[in-house]
What we know:
heterodimer; A: mainly beta; Tachylectin-2, Chain A; five-stranded antiparallel β-sheet; B: mainly beta; four-stranded antiparallel β-sheet; globular
Amino acid sequence: MITNYNPGGRDLLHRWEGNPILTLEDLPFPCNSVFNGTPVKLGEEYLLLLRVEGQRGYSFFALARSEDGFHFEVEKKPVLLPAEKGIFSVYESRGLEDPRGTFIEGTYYVLYTAVSEYGYRIALARTEDFRSFERIALVSEPGNKDGVLFPEKINGQYARLDRPIGLGVGSIWISYSNDLKSWGNSSVLLSPRRGYWDSFRVGASVPPIKTEYGWLEIYHGTKMTSAGPIYRAGAALLDLKDPSRVVKRCDVPILSPREDYERIGDVGNVVFPCGAIVEPDGEIKVYYGGADTCICVATANLADMTHCITTS
Amino acid sequence: MAKKRSRDLVHRWESNPIITIENLTFPCADISTAGAIKIDGEYILLLTIQSLEGFYAIYTARSMDGYHFEIGNEPVLTPSMNGPASLYDRMGVLDARIVRIGAEYYVSYDALGPHGYRLALAQTIDFKKFERLGFISEPDTKGGVLFPKKIKGKYVRLERPWEGGSIWLSYSQDLEYWGWSEVALTPRGGYWDCDRIGVATPPMEVDQGWLIIYYGVKHTSAGPLFRLGAAILDALNPASVISRTDEPILSPRENYERIGDQPNLVFSCGAVIESDSEVKLYYGASNSCIAVGITTVERLVAACANEVNA
């Protein structure tokens, strides 16, 4: 049960009134759509690394900048295109999708989905200026996506969440690494819940956020209907010292497709967060793709959110 | 009466199958695969046996001639009924493949649980006691096998992630954390191995590189046809394929390969190379018995270069 917080709203996350914040019309080059962006706040400037789907059908990344986190300007040139040579070109031949950025010890890392004839797999890059990226490694086998890194080492190791497809079961798993290149000690973390709004598949969405109640993971969950899947956002808290342990998982979604820009698009009925900014005053801005066609932002008070999760 | 010509590059032993459920002292559903190794003149197989309930466990079988085996009465690796591991292998442990690295024997096998297949690794000295080293992949991947030695300082494994139906390679510094994965062999449109492929035997070191036997699947309206082929991978860069058989080296033809729980299937998890380069290829037939086929390293290498007719 949601508590008396948010009495008037339809969702725990409040949509910004000016949504969507970016659409096709805001891009300085022709493309099919823009969605699933991951944000970072550098000083007072907001940067948003965007997934853009070109007219040809494959996706790549562009960069948008903002002074306030709501009004963004997209830079003229894409910042990361599929690799043209080397090992990455083999596994990125059909595009780059769904970037998720994490600061770890002063370095900005991006996990993204590399798509090729061999399937989906997770790739890792790092950047300093968000214009040039250094690819580090392909960090999963095929059949895996939605990778997010924890923002700090845990018990001396890097940790990540991801979504391998096992026997068609779409669960969130956790893995660990000493060097960011080789990964192991994997275990299942969150699975679809029969009968719930997230009964079909779940996947990590926002890189985990440290709170006093545990690591806050805002994830996406789907329910299959006769008209296709409905993508909603949910939340769970993971143990700070052992994030393979779920402290609490919210029973209800924190954001569901309701507005036209979430209902209508290339993939209707989708809200799909890829990142969030926590402001000094405790406000959380969650950036999400709407209907695989635009980018939106929704906000909440982080303390209210964790309170809602722990009491749900 | 001897046939004029064998139908496949690999010759079936005349008294196949060598192990059926009639040879067991306990009831079971079927016997599907055998990993193989020869140690000090003794042949050891690790059999995958499915219980009547439907779960898979691994048993040993021992022989002094490679054809007549004594089968252990108790499994050596079993599904976990409780504890964290049960989430990943409570439906079965299966398809063991044996590799010696230095002085250690490693057994890679598939763990089957509600989340799908993962690779698992165990270690043994005597093939009586096995130490489980843990799960070494996420789902959904199976058919894992280690190379018998490190390459460029790293352990290497072959495996078959479900996505794409190809054979992949991964590397590790410690057998625990794995990465640097890349595709090695893919299904070939139109061929007998057009739908999916997977590793069969552990890589065998030959002059030309690493010789592997793999299985290939072609789907028919009656279900899949599992056959065996071979390939040679580059010695130092095993993601590079030096040569690969155009034709299968063994196809289901005999009744024991045609009739069983999984009809039309030959599926190997291990081979023994004798000192005279004879290869004894142990294979499961129809997921219901174990058979042995015989060939030589030279014939397999020539077949990979497509220079031999059976």
